[in-house]
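Troubleshooting: if your tokenizer reports a length mismatch, compare against these two reference records.
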Amino acid sequence: MKRTYRFLFFFTMPVMDFILLTCAGLLSYGLYRILGIGQKAAYPFQSVFQACLVAGLVSVSILFLMGAYKKESGLLNVQEIKNTIKGVTISFLLVSAAMVLLKYQVPRYVLVFSYVLSITLLVAEKTALYHLLPLSKNMHGLNRRILIYGAGELGLTLFRSIAASPKLGIFPVGFIDDNPELKGSAFRSSGFANTSMDISVLGTGKEIPSLIHTHHIDEVCVAISNIDNTTLVNILNRLKEKDIRVSFVPNLYEAFVHKVTIDKVGQIPIVREADDYTPKIRTITKKTMDILLSIILLAVLSPVFLVIAGFIKKESGGPVFFTHDRVGLNGRLFKIIKFRTMTAGTDPYEINPTDINDSRITRAGRFLRRTSLDELPQLINVIKGEMSLVGPRPEMPFIVDNYTDLHWERLVVKPGITGLWQLSGDREKPIHENMDYDLYYIKNGSLFLDVAILIETIIFAFRGI
């Protein structure tokens, strides 16, 4: 029954996309007519409606092919947003090319409006759905309720991954761990502040039968780090004897920190580390996008820069900008540039404020920090080639001096102005304690992923210190 509910629930997603894409086309034509721009071409409504239906159907089909309807959402939903933008872009190019070949004269303004509206509506829809789905956790018809056996590193990683993909229809009710001292310990998932969840250790393996009855559990998933085969088999057999549905996670978390490929030889899966190779076209495209967008943003935002500079000077005197040593690509030092938010003369290497009411922060500084406007001068760092628009946040040298091998992974790409960590509810925690975000970005980096993160940044930028 749960599978039927889930199927019906997610069948509505492509239908909703089709309706939104069709509406985007109709609205674009209406906007073109209202504005009276271009050649002011007029078409019968029936022809416009039919063209929008065809374009919507083509777009939904391509979205299917691009993986926009996969159950896995990826960290902070960026994979689904990325696949949506990619699918809409490809369908826009195909539909435009087809109209040219068929000599169907569509005003270019309508095509541009349609593209922008399609992305805007679909991204808004999928973002809203991602935030609403966790509210369905108590709807037994939609979700499979599980216990995670093991509150160690592997179990916590599984918990965070499940919480990041609410479309999977899996709701982790709590942990089970054979260490009785952990009972009652609470753990919080990573993610957006309003989509994170807390679960605790409910008991030991001996208490599973009673917990299944009390909490209406559908499945127990064994996720114990460094477990030996004999212990794993004994746990699986013990649970099966009690007619408990059981699954387990292979202890390959450390291997999957790096890029891997999975092949099959007969019935035997083989995991091998993938080549650590970034296509040259990806590097060139990212650098070009960084520089072009940064120049455009600096030009457009120059009046904002002047206003901010005026407020800083008027309130506290001193320099407008604040520079600080940061560690960039491959461990190279550079000077990061920000608008100064603290009083003039403050030691730049004192402990960074964690409270917006810190006495060192000026009134203008509080506003700049709340809105993240203090980060705007880093566009200069991007043009200089020291940073990228999207990437892991750069840290101070004394923190990098204590990096482990795993932490050094985040220095294989340029640091960014924005990234997954900045979008998350874990932003208040130290950067190096939230490696999930940086490792995910490094392993899945692409042009469309950068675009997805930039769009989500626009939506969620104006939050917190």
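Reference record two:
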Amino acid sequence: MNVNVAIAYSGRDEIVWALRALLAEHALNGTPLEQLSSTLCAEDIAGKLFTTGQPDPDLIIRTSGEHRLSGFMSWQSAYSECYFPPVLWPDFTHEDFREALETYHHRQRNFGE
């Protein structure tokens, strides 16, 4: 199980950072921009994200009752299930976590199909 806790994190900043790293790598290798633009694929960008090597999250728990992700793992969360408990993070209990997992267990996932 992988657990990611993000502090002072922005999904947009992560994607910009990944693109800059990808462009810098190709510049060092002398890849012409035209070639990069014609061959660039999602896996190239995903390979430069902070979570490279980790699977995309199956479940994202957003505490506080807000029903939005606020840019959290923008790239990786495309097919994630989300759970929005009304409690704030400091008050999130083992029982809240168990409830999140139970809710997730009963969902029918279709991965965008």
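Descriptive notes for reference record two:
- The radius of gyration is 17 Å.
- The chain has a mean pLDDT of 93.
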